[in-house]
Amino acid sequence: MKKPTRITIVEVARKAGVSLGTVSRVINEKEGVGSVLREKVLSAARSLGYVPSFAAQSMRSQSSRAVGLMVSDISNPLFAATVSATEEVLYRSGYNMILTNSRDSPDKEKEILDLFQRRRFDGMIITLSKEEDPATLRVLSESRIPTVLFERESTLPLDSVATDHYSGAHQAVSYLLKLAHRRIGLITVTQAALPGRARGLAYSAAHKSAGVPVDASLMSFDGFLPDAGYHAAYRMLVSPRPPTALVVGANQMPGVLKAIRTLKLSIPKKLSLVQIGDTDVASLHQPPLTAVRWEFAKVGAAAAELLLAKISGAVDGSRPRRIVLPTELVLRQSCAAPAA
Amino acid sequence: MKKPTRITIVEVARKAGVSLGTVSRVINEKEGVGSVLREKVLSAARSLGYVPSFAAQSMRSQSSRAVGLMVSDISNPLFAATVSATEEVLYRSGYNMILTNSRDSPDKEKEILDLFQRRRFDGMIITLSKEEDPATLRVLSESRIPTVLFERESTLPLDSVATDHYSGAHQAVSYLLKLAHRRIGLITVTQAALPGRARGLAYSAAHKSAGVPVDASLMSFDGFLPDAGYHAAYRMLVSPRPPTALVVGANQMPGVLKAIRTLKLSIPKKLSLVQIGDTDVASLHQPPLTAVRWEFAKVGAAAAELLLAKISGAVDGSRPRRIVLPTELVLRQSCAAPAA
DNA sequence: GCCTGTCAATGAAACGTTTCATTGGTGCGC
DNA sequence: GCGCACCAATGAAACGTTTCATTGACAGGC
């Protein structure tokens, strides 16, 4: 390993014939340095190839200019657009984003949260696999790092940014009920976290206000399991009393579509279909799928903005802020009244 | 801001009644501390809620245990699976991943590379918007940080990990030529970087060996522009001598499919279609799209592994390592012989 | 011509670790 | 019983910055 000793501020100061403090102020573009010396320092720094050490800066200034992001599954394509917007906002404010993947393991979540503490991140944006995992909550409540929950809510007084999954699912289910569907399947993720829970509640509420009884066998919350979409859809569709419509999370939809194709069911003739989360798969499908839509980028940006506000102290921490972003139902051609 | 002074190693040492060095060795699980003291230190640390400062550690140890990733567009869904695998491999080796988004701007790329220097990252994995941008190359050649180019290649002796885009495109075009297509469109990204360039070359080579002349108006390399897929496909398809087949990058495909739908062309009757990069959009399309396939996760993992090897010094830097991962052509139902 | 206020520049302390040369005990061989 | 090697533990230096109290110089007011 070639290690010809890094150039430090000391070498620059010596070469420019000034003191450490002066170099520091030039580097940080602070007031109070004459233009002659400023130039001298700058040219010395350039010629030596000086690069400030972030570690030293952040140790001294007690700020890492970094934010940790913990998501349950990076490869989830819905996250891609979201995370991109988050990064954009953070970067513009001079923060870097460390991305980690908990793979929905509570153990790994705890590990990552510990890591974030050690790294002294200035803030963190996180999803939790289970919102009420006691070990995780303990770590969180002891943490002094400004935190924003992402697509999650907690009994702890934590700020959060989330999509209005309840309304989204409610719109979708109500719409299908109005089309006279009486057996509607719901295929989504675990109820241990906001998106699945809200959808389950909305599903029941919509049924209740329409006076339609709920059949628990038509709800599947296994979405995080591999092939969950396929299995859940297949099971429901071959049952004695199959659903006439399906409301499906975007990540489960590929599996669901495979099941539908296997069973050769025509859409919307035999089966109506609504996707939660509007993706290319939905809009390009034949027929195009009716979908619950929200702006991925806006959620990601909102989370970053709330976090930045907390870091700067602009938002008082006395009462948790919960930001909820709206959804809309995009009607396409995948829904019809059920066959008589 | 409440800042009741962070607990440091000093407080722990005082409380446990030992020296700094002893605490340090306990924390880092090093040899040479008696079990009595070890326990004392541990319990003192626990009761004080001590958390080591990463900044101080990394300043002292000259290692940031962090790796920078610079991609041209995080929201590109193809990257999601790739980046996820990269993170996984890095995390397992104790490295964190800082994700940045250059949005294909050379200026921002330079800025990000500078940032990586200041942060003293232990390594970086990067895509470049233009492989031969002189300013960027200068920064890179002066950098002392182990670097792996990702889906890019350079005249500089830099290590790289990439998919075999040349073979992939060659397979696709040859297949269509064999089906007797004589006017094949290619819609992909800029030739200033490996994927687009390799595809362009493969396109020409395949035509040459089949003795079919190349029509430059059937190639579009604007893929990074918004709606590029739509515009390129539309232009080609309404031209006097439209193509009978299209080879399209995964990110351009949604736009292309919209154009096809607008023009009401049936697949594969009127138009054959091959997608480069196998995504849900391809496999779920009706009819399912023939696609050039490779394992996204493997590319991401390979990049991380090569970088880790370089960081640890396991791979000698004398000659650049270029890892190329294979592709295969997945035949589905979107291709047929051209209509007479 | 002296005092004061302003401003550029300095020097040293502080940030929280790790490392390394020392010290102080203990057990062992002879 | 003496010296030696060994091991646990110590204390101080070092890592590369920022910050802050101080100094020095200079101009202006009286």
Could you explain the architecture of this structure?
The structure is a homodimer of 340-residue chains. The first copy, chain A, is α/β, with parallel strands linked by helices. In chain A, 44% of the residues lie in helices and 15% in strands. Chain A has 13 helices and twelve strands. Chain A has helices at residues 9-16, 20-27, 35-48, 54-61, 77-92, 106-118, 134-142, 165-178, 194-210, 228-237, 253-262, 280-284, 296-311, and strands at 66-71, 96-101, 123-126, 147-150, 159-163, 184-187, 219-220, 245-249, 272-276, 290-293, 322-325, 328-330. In chain A, the strands form two sheets. Chain A has a six-stranded parallel beta sheet with strand order 2-1-3-4-5-11, sandwiched between helices. The first copy, chain A, has a six-stranded mixed beta sheet with strand order 7-6-8-9-10-12, with helices on both faces. In chain A, α9 links the parallel β6 and β7 (219-220). In chain A, α5 runs parallel beside α13. The radius of gyration of chain A is 26 Å and the shape is elongated. At the A-B interface, α4, α5, β2, α6 and α11 of A face α4, α5, β2, α6 and α11 of B. The structure holds a DNA duplex (30 and 30 nucleotides).
